[in-house]
Amino acid sequence: MIPTRTTREWQAADSAHFLHPFTDYQSLARKGSRVITRADNIYLWDSEGHKILDAMSGLWCVNVGYGQRALIDAATQQLAELPFYNSFFQTTTPPAVALAELLAEVTPPQFSHVFFAGSGSEGNDTVVRMVRRYWQVLGQPERQVIISRHNAYHGSTMAGASLGGMAAMHEQGGLPIPNITHIDQPYWVQHGQGMSRDDFGRLAASWLERKILEVGPEKVAAFIGEPVQGAGGVIIPPETYWPEIQKICDRYGILLVSDEVICGFGRTGHWFGCERFGFRPDLMTFAKGVTSGYIPLGGVMVGDRVARVLIEQGGEFEHGYTYSGHPVACAVALANIRLIQQLKLVEHVHDDVGPYLAQAFAQLAEHPLVGTAETCGLMGALLLVKDQAKLTPFDPAVGIGMVCRGHCFANGLIMRAVGDRMIIAPPLVITRAQVDEMVALIRRCLDLTLADAQRQGWL
Ligand code: PMP
User: Fold this and answer.
1) Is the CB of 261 under 6 A from ligand 1?
2) What is the β-pairing status of strands 220-225 and 255-259?
3) Parts of the chain belonging to CATH 3.40.640.10
4) Which of 63, 96, 166, 223 is the most buried (most CB within 10 A)?
5) For residue 88, what pLDDT is reported?
């Protein structure tokens, strides 16, 4: 049983023993963690009884919202029936098979196979192993290089962090590992001002071709990207970007990998982000929304082009995890995907709350602090700027995003700051009335941040 304690007692034990991910330990110990104790629908409660609107779906994952009975029951029943068995030694379990079948049904037509992992990072490690193995089996072992983008996020394991383009992560671990290289991201504010978005999308895609020619096409194994970069700050590419990336991959025969860890399972108003942006990946990493975060599960959808080679010519694939196809995780995923279907959440985002959020963000764009306001399905980002017309950034020393995030945290709203971009990705079950409630909270926090900026002379 979990003991009953006061907030201060939890905080003391937390800083004494728990090394949190991506955290400055001394600074957290000075403040003390916020202790989250329960949740329902799109709301969280902390140990002091404060109610918080969770506009980040936990960590981009609680797509069906908190407290869904179907997922809780699926886990409980499967724990009682068969809590674990592996799939290494010519055995399988019904939940894993049923989930593999259902995934083949809800993913684009080129996918009829899945490799299960425990997380998005493990999924991307699998991608690295699998694309290199694919080319090896085809007698082209020199095709090793995987091209990714700066400011991408693909996880925190050695391969995941190497594929990712986060400079701070690379600095701390001697990364990237060999044969992973990066091109610039399709972020119009950074690289495209003065051009139309469509022209910029084509230009940003051309950087892939330039890199392929620089490396040598015979050495390139794959290109990987998130349809919309999530952790990088909800960077929504121009419409021209992905179709052009597809053409370039086709031209050189290199594998195209879509990291759908955030964009998958309805987030963009389509089942998968590649469907929203019109491209046809050979491999697709998933995690998070597959179980709505109720239990860890990740994996890779393997398209027919790759699956055929691995199955017919590959022999044994020397890769796998203890929890590949974990029966409880798979049972929860099955319940979760069926619930997404029953509640018609993809349609709800596409036809109803997605467009409604887009309208609300268009209005937020008029706030004097907001330089750009963009959404894609139920992901959104506001760029905070000093001068709206010129998109002049604040002095980085101000940390305007963190100032705004502080106001959100104190006012019952979870919104994340990535540099000066304030981002949201609320649960897909959110209603129009709850979008109104969220947007009113955002507006209030923007006003409080503006008042700080005026008082402190940051403008
Ligand atoms: N890929 C993307 C696009 C992600 O956003 C994340 C996590 N935020 C990962 C991979 C890594 O997933 P995990 O944290 O489950 O390892």
Assistant:
1) yes
2) parallel
3) 69-342
4) 63
5) 95
Residue 227: both structure tokens together: 């349809």
pLDDT of residue 173: 80
Q: Superfamily for 34-64+344-456?
A: Aspartate Aminotransferase, domain 1 (3.90.1150.10)
395 and 385 Cβ atoms separated by less than 8 Å: no
- Per-10-residue mean pLDDT for the chain, 459 residues long? 94 98 96 97 98 98 98 98 97 98 98 98 98 98 98 98 97 95 98 97 98 98 98 98 98 98 98 98 98 98 98 97 98 99 98 98 98 98 96 97 97 98 98 98 98 96
What is the pLDDT, as a whole number, of residue 307? 98
pTM above 0.90, yes or no: yes
**CA 96 – CA 397 distance, rounded (Å):** 49
CATH hierarchy code of domain 69-342: 3.40.640.10
Rounded to an integer, what distance in angstroms lies between the CA atom of residue 203 and that of residue 218?
23
In short, whether 226's Cβ falls inside 6 Å of ligand 1 is yes
Whether the Cβ atoms of residue 83 and residue 96 lie closer than 8 Å to each other: no
Pocket flag, ligand 1, residue 375 (CB < 6 Å): no
Give the ipTM: 0.99
Two structure tokens written together for 294: 């109720």
CA 451 to ligand 1 centroid distance, Å? 35
Residues of the chain with CATH 3.90.1150.10: 34-64+344-456
**Interval between CA 153 and ligand 1 midpoint (Å):** 7
| CA of 119, closest atom in ligand 1 | 15
Q: Please give the single-letter amino acid code of residue 144.
A: Q
Q: What are phi and psi of 420, to 5 degrees?
A: -95, 10
> DSSP per residue over 358-408, as a string?
HHHHHHHTTSTTEEEEEEETTEEEEEE-SBTTTTBPPPGGG-HHHHHHHHH
Alpha helices in 32-87 (DSSP H): 57-60, 69-81
208 and 242 in contact (C-beta within 8 Å)? no
CA of 290 to the centre of ligand 1 (A): 12
Q: Is the CB of 154 under 6 A from ligand 1?
A: yes
Question: What are the C-alpha distances in Å from 257 to residues 147, 235, 285, 320, 374?
Answer: 10, 18, 8, 19, 25
203 by DSSP, 3-state: which?
helix
